[in-house]
Amino acid sequence: MSQPRRPSRRRTWTALTLPVLLCALAACSADPAAGGGAHAGGPAQDASPAPTGPPGTLFDDFNYTGADDPSLAAHGWEIRTGGGGPGIKDTWSADGVAFPSDPTAEGGKVLRLRSSTDGTEQGTAQAEVQTTSRNFFTGTFAARVHLSDKPTSGRDGDHVVQTFFPISPSDSSENYSELDFEYLPNGGWGSVGPQLDNVSWYKADPPDRIHKTLKRRLGGWHTMVITAMDGKVTYSLDGKKLFTSSGKYVPREQMDIHFSNWLIDLPFTGGPRIWDMKVDWVYYKADEAVSQKDVQKTVDGFHSTGTDYINTVPKP
After folding, report:
1. Which of 49, 51, 236, 282 is deepest in the core (most CB within 10 A)?
2. Is the pLDDT of residue 241 over 70?
C-alpha cells in the first residue's frame, strides 16, 4: 500500500475567486446570441456555451489561454490555493497551473500542473485543479495524462505524487467516496517505487480502503479510465484492466474531479527542482460503462469537429 490516508484537505480556493467570478459573471451576462461554440481563447462572451452535445457527457480539451482565462471558471474549474494537505501543507499555488501548446497533445494544448521545491516549506509550491460542480457519480471517468519519471529540472529523488481522481467534496461525509490513480515515480511512505496505486475508499478517517499497486515505470502519455457501474469499480490503463473493487468500495455520493501534483515530504535541500504533470483531455460519461477504445473514438470525434468543451451532465 502506498500510503496512509492523506491529511485533511481543508480545501481552500481563494486567490482567483474574485477576479474569476467577475469574469464569469461578465461572460454569463453577455449576449446569448454571440455563440456557444468551442473555446479558442476568444472573447469572454464565448466562455459559457449552451449545454449541447451528447447527454450526460463532460469533455474538456483544456484549450485555455492561462490560469486567469474567464472560460476556465465558466467551464466549471477551480485552481486550488491556500491551506491544507495533502503533502506540504499550505503550499498550493495558482502559479503552477498553465495551458501551454504541446505537439504531443492530441488537442494541441495541455493543462500543466507544476510542483516545485528547493527542499524547504517556504520554497515549495504544489498544484491542483478541480471541477466546481459535484455532479459526477456512476459512469466512466477518463483522462489522457502525461506522467513524469524525472524532474523537468533539478536533482531527482523527490517523493512526488501525480494524480487523477474523483472524490467527495468533504472528507467527513457519511457517504465518503474516492477513486484514485496515483503515480509515485520515486515511491514514498517507505516504498521505493516507481509505482501506480489504484485505491477505492469507503472512509477517510479512520482510513478504510482497498488498493492494488502496479510496480512499473510509467513516464509518458497514458489513458486512465475508471468505470463505476453495477456495484463495482474498474481501473484501466491504456485499455488494460488493473484492478476492480466492489462491495462497500464503490461511489456512494456525487463527487468532483481532481488533477493534482504534490510532494509527500521534503527529503533533501540543495537546489531547486521542478516536477511537471500534464493533462491532454478529460472525459466523463454518466451512468454508462465505456471502454477505452470507445472513449478514444469519442474524443477523436470531438477533435475532428473542433470541439474543445462539452458539459451536458445534469446539475446536482
Report:
1. 282
2. yes
